Amino acid sequence: MIIGQIKDGIVLDHITAGNCMEIYAALELDKLDCQVAIIKNAESKKYGKKDIIKIDQAIDIDLDVLGYLDERITVNIIKDGKLLKRAHLEAPEEIKNVIKCKNPRCITTTEQELPHVFKLTDREKKVYRCIYCESQGK
Amino acid sequence: MRSIIDILDLSKEEIADLVAVAEDIIENPDDYREKCKHKKLATLFFEPSTRTRLSFEAAMYELGGNVLGFSDGDNSSASKGESVHDTIKVVSCYADVIAMRHPKEGAALVAANASGVPVINAGDGGHNHPTQTLADLLTIHREKGTFDNLTIGFCGDLMFGRTVHSLIHALTRYKNIKVVLISPEELKLPDYMLEDMAAHGLEYVETTSLEEYMGELDVLYMTRVQKERFFNEQDYIRLKDSYILSPEKLMPAKSDMIILHPLPRVNEITVAVDEDPRACYFKQVLNGKYMRMALILKVLEEAAK
After folding, report:
1. Which residues in chain B have their CB less than 8 angstroms from residue A105's CB?
2. Residues B251-303 pLDDT 10s
3. Do B83 and A113 touch (CB under 8 A)?
4. What is the CATH number of domain A9-88?
5. pLDDT given for residue B274 in this prediction
6. Where in chain A are the domains?
7. Which of A15, B25, B171, B252 is buried most, with the most CB atoms less than 10 Å from its CB?
8. Using alpha carbons only, how large is chain B's radius of gyration in Å?
9. What is the reported pLDDT for B195?
């Protein structure tokens, strides 16, 4: 299977196999007019299998959202057909309005305008907790 | 300006200072009669409470201050749909310090973020209740003389019991504390609390039996199964009588063990236990007022700087 190189854009590499559609949805890539290639279950020397997303346009990407969803991802920024920058992700300390608190007793259930903020409380287990009620984010 | 939302907003040293001030208030009440003259405390109780609200109000009056507020969310603008954020913005124009109780978890943090004056969390749902913890700590200090080397049993509703959560948080900072968690399976301590205890090296054991560790306890902290925390009344009815402390059940307990309860009790401690010298739950009520006095003084002094 051959998918051409992109000139100016972004390649999200090393996505955990099976995660690409979740990433696609979270980054709202369906709203783009440019070409977007989704490659599932590509061979990976490091992980066995991986997913890849190629975006043929230089768009702004929220690295915190990506880091929360899958910290294995490598972000490659391509300019004039060459690799301009490569970023490795890590789980962010705080995420805002990425996930919602599901605790029915949390203040966010009644105060609709409050941002849903979660803080990383255990990096090893990747546990995020609501700053208001301390429930674990899921 | 600082708000007190969680007991961990106070350092171990600050808690020691508050205990010292409270003990000085007990010894020399006249020295404090005018400390808060011309200051106003707003008690905003979106959820009914007798004890905590009256304790805050009595504390402020004994410091020479004044009190305004409401005792039920139905009597406030919340019943018209006003947010906590807006209510606090308004009230902080009238008062120098706010004590707030709200049924939703995290409401106190929202209030603190909105407020122009210090907010003291007087209970946010099943989450935190730091001033009850201050009352518990003063009682433990006055009765046991230390916060270290204690085996403390928590019995009853450990899932929704905010007083339990706050006291356990506080205990993570003392030496050689052992915790015995006594509850039905359905009301066990939440996972994040267990993780927190493990992270701080606090030794704990979980059991469904009130009798199993009775002889080892230095402090027994009883709690009520709270009807208002259940969405399903059937679950409440099934669990409400899980543990009832009676003089017979206290037989194997140490002679200097103390029995605490944040009150109100329903039937989880029989009235006969009240006669036992180890029953300290009414002393806890009085200690709560002194600790609230010490805390109001502290946050007002800090706000004035």
Report:
1. 103-105, 125-126, 229
2. 999 999 999 999 989 889 999 999 999 999 999 999 999 999 999 999 999 99
3. yes
4. 3.30.70.140
5. 97
6. 9-88, 94-130
7. A15
8. 19
9. 86
Told to judge if B261 belongs to the known catalytic residues of this protein, a careful annotator would answer: no
The pLDDT tens digits for B96-149 are: 999 999 999 999 999 999 999 999 999 998 888 999 999 999 999 999 999 999
Q: Which residues in A lie closer than 8 A to residue B85 (C-beta atoms)? A: 111, 113
Chain length of chain B: 305
For an interface test with A, the pick among B100, B105, B113, B193 (most A C-beta atoms closer than 10 Å) comes out as B105
- Report pLDDT digits (tens) over B34-84: 999 999 999 999 988 888 999 999 999 999 999 999 987 676 666 667 899
Residue B142 bears catalytic tag = no
Q: What is the ipTM of this complex?
A: 0.84
Is B101 a known active-site residue?
yes
> Which residues from chain A sit within 8 angstroms of residue B124, using beta carbons?
107
Chain A residues touching residue B195 (CB < 8 angstroms): 122, 127
User: CA-CA distances (angstroms) from residue B176 to B150, B203, B215, B256, B259?
Assistant: 7, 8, 18, 18, 20
Look up the pTM and report it: 0.86
Count Cα neighbours of A89 within 13 Å in the Cβ-side half-sphere.
Answer: 24
* Choice among A67-71, B67-71, B161-165, B244-248 with the minimum mean pLDDT: B161-165
- Angstrom distances, CA of residue A55 to CA of A9, A16, A19, B63, B187: 6, 18, 16, 66, 49
Residue B51 appears among annotated catalytic residues:
yes
Distance from CA of A127 to the nearest CA of B (A): 10
What the block records as the tokens of B250 is 């206290």
Closest approach of chain B CAs to the CA of A67, in angstroms?
23
Catalytic residue among B52, B87, B131, B139: B52
Question: In order of start, what are the domains of chain B with their CATH numbers?
Answer: 7-129+286-304 (3.40.50.1370), 131-284 (3.40.50.1370)
